[in-house]
Design goal:
By secondary structure, this protein is an alpha/beta fold. The protein folds into two domains: about 90 residues, Translation factors (Elongation Factor Tu (Ef-tu), domain 3), CATH 2.40.30.10; about 110 residues, Rossmann fold, CATH 3.40.50.80. Helices cover about 25% and strands about 35% of the residues. Strands 1, 2, 3, 4, 5, 6 and 7 form a seven-stranded antiparallel beta sheet that branches. It is globular and about 50 Å long. It starts with a strand and ends with a strand.
């Protein structure tokens, strides 16, 4: 059964990524790390929820416009339109709390980990957190300022952005390479991976070879 939600705003984050704010028109209960489906003309697509549950009940999504017919229909909607949402489903469980946490995101794979970070930082997560965000260019680090602010205000959080197609003063190359350059072993870490499927599978294989056993 779907839940109608009001599209409150569409904000451009990059040339091809938009931030959608949705207000469900009925009670809608999700947890950080969940995803939902948007239904258009009986065709559904999944999207990670990019924010933690909040008193206003507003949902944040980060959606890349791939310009196929479904996305063209979605982005024809304007503020005030109604979209149909599936019930939320768990994608990434909450951290256990007894291990340091390593987030490795590529592109809009940032979204579910941002939601987890909101909860962890609000609750004073006691373990170290390392957050690697891989992107093609600086423009694709669409909430870089937010991440830098969080890292500056929370000593337990280390934020490492990595660019694969642009030279800059920060880290360059593949995000999995950056992780392995920085960390000799991964056996102690609870690891979360999200992004393009080839990136995720490559990182999972290489991290497992470095001792990782707790990978989501």
């Amino acid at each position: 059964m779907s839940t109608p939600a009001t599209l409150e705003a569409i904000n451009g984050l990059t040339d091809d990524i938009a931030q959608l704010w949705l207000a469900p028109q009925a009670p809608y209960h999700w947890q950080a790390g969940d995803y939902l489906l948007i239904e258009l003309a009986e065709d559904k697509r999944p999207f990670s929820i990019a924010n933690a549950p909040n008193p206003a009940g507003r949902i944040e999504l980060h959606i890349r416009h791939t310009h196929d017919d479904w996305y063209n229909r979605l982005f024809q909607h304007t503020a005030g339109a109604t979209l149909q949402l599936s019930a939320p489903q768990q994608q990434y469980p909450p951290p256990r709390g007894d291990h340091p946490v390593l987030f490795v995101a590529g592109g809009t794979g940032f979204a579910p980990f941002k939601a987890h970070l909101e909860v962890m930082l609000q609750n004073g997560f006691a373990q170290p957190i390392r957050f690697y965000w891989g992107a093609r260019s600086q423009a694709d680090l669409y909430q870089d300022d937010l991440m830098r602010t969080w890292a500056a205000n929370h000593p337990g959080l280390t934020y490492i952005p990595v660019l694969s197609e642009e030279t800059w003063p920060g880290r360059c190359g593949l995000v999995a390479d950056a992780v392995l350059e920085d960390m000799d072993t991964l056996s102690a870490w609870e690891i979360y991976l999200c992004g393009p499927w080839p990136m995720v599978e490559d990182a999972r294989r290489r991290f497992t070879a470095q001792g990782a056993s707790l990978i989501h």
